[in-house]
Design brief:
α2 crosses α4 (161-177) and α5 packs across α8 (255-279). The protein has 10 helices and 5 strands, in the order αααβββββααααααα. A hairpin with a 3-residue loop joins β2 (101-113) and β3 (117-119). The chain is elongated. It has helices spanning 7-33, 49-59, 63-75, 161-177, 192-201, 206-220, 242-251, 255-279, 287-309, 314-360; strands at residues 88-90, 101-113, 117-119, 132-136, 142-155.
């Protein structure tokens, strides 16, 4: 049975519309009051929640940036854009040479084992955007894998409100496009130049961020301190000269040098990790496990001899022999896998050394 709207329903709707209109009017009025050329921090040099709210209000003058704020709020699992305040901090002196701000991401993987308690494990990305999962270790024991993603946006203290709003939009575009626990294999890039360009063109990369913040700067009618990239855009805001804009970001913006240095640092960090794993993974197998295999083979031989000598005890001895054989096969499988893993590490190390040598040679 359908119910008809009552007068009370209509009144409630009218009240709701009135409240929304009042809130929108208040936001528009507040936006008009904000001085875009004033400092984005309070007189105490700190970022208060009210000042951050003003940044969101200013950024929301551009519909594209307003949608960006809503999308990032949803991505972070927040219910209100004001909660983005928790991601903010002021860059320390000298931290951001030549930049107005940057996005830092911190990712961790923790494993809690029911018998061993908390343990660390080699990085394995979760499926999709899953943050919690149940997996099984190689002995069939359940364990809980917990993934932690902590982004952080810092901006330099000397920015005006307008510059800070544009910088915030720039960094939020990076955050929206960033997929945690999904780093691409560093060796899939041809060289440091390929890495730099790929990072610029990636979703949420510098190209997207520069286009988005340029739109906001144009809406606010302020000079774009990040660089004059409006010359690469068409009248409708789309990119008219993609190659020219990428080249400008890499060269004029200084991102080429920074990203190429980042590529080299990634290679060095992974090489150190591989060397660490190799130190505990001898190419011929771990001597302890090799001795275990040899000892179990000896036990097998002795048990078989006893079975041959004492057929009357064959049942118990055969059970012992089967247990020893099973443990020996498990140990042998582990040693084989370890040897294969060692070979993979050696091959990986060689590839990393080759890439690092090429990236750091003069003119490389």
């Amino acid at each position: 049975m359908k119910t008809q709207p009552t007068k009370l329903d209509f009144r409630q709707s009218l009240v709701l519309v009135t409240l929304l209109a009042s809130a929108l009017y208040a936001q528009v009025a507040r936006a008009a009051e904000i001085n875009l050329s004033g400092g984005w921090l309070g007189t105490n040099g700190r970022l208060e929640k009210s000042e951050f709210s003003d940044l969101l209000t200013v950024a929301s003058r551009d519909p594209e940036s307003a949608q960006l704020i809503a999308d990032v709020t949803k991505k972070m699992g927040f219910t209100n854009p004001s909660e983005l305040y928790d991601l903010m901090r002021i860059c320390e002196s000298g931290e951001n040479a030549g930049e107005y701000g940057h996005l830092a991401t911190h990712e961790e993987k923790h494993i809690t084992h029911p018998k061993l308690g908390y343990i660390d494990a080699p990085f394995v990305p979760p499926s999709a955007d899953e943050l919690h999962s149940i997996a099984t270790d190689n002995r069939g024991l359940a364990r809980t894998e917990h993934f932690v993603f902590k982004p952080e946006i810092c901006m330099i203290p000397s920015l005006s409100v307008g510059e800070a709003a544009v910088t915030l939009a720039h960094e939020l575009i990076h955050l929206l496009g960033y997929i945690p626990f999904s780093q691409k294999d560093i060796l899939t890039y041809a060289d440091k130049a390929d890495y730099a360009r790929s990072r610029v063109e990636a979703p949420g990369g510098e190209l997207d961020a520069h286009v988005g913040h340029t739109h906001l700067a144009q809406t606010l009618g302020i000079a774009d301190g990040h660089g004059h990239y409006a010359r690469f855009l068409a009248a409708d805001g789309t990119i008219a000269n993609r190659e020219g804009m990428i080249e400008a970001i890499l060269k004029d913006g200084g991102y080429g040098d920074r990203l190429e240095a980042e590529y080299v640092n990634h290679l060095r960090a992974e090489l150190a990790t591989v060397n660490g794993h190799l130190s505990g993974t001898p190419p011929g197998g771990n001597p302890i496990y090799l001795r275990n295999v040899a000892g179990l083979r000896k036990d097998e031989t002795e048990l078989q001899a006893l079975i041959d000598q004492h057929p009357s005890n064959e049942g118990d001895l055969k059970a012992q022999l089967e247990d020893v054989r099973l443990r020996r096969e498990q140990q042998e499988t582990y040693v084989k896998n370890q040897i294969l893993y060692s070979k993979e590490l050696i091959d990986r190390k060689q590839a990393l050394v080759t890439a690092l040598t090429s990236a750091t040679k003069p003119g490389g």
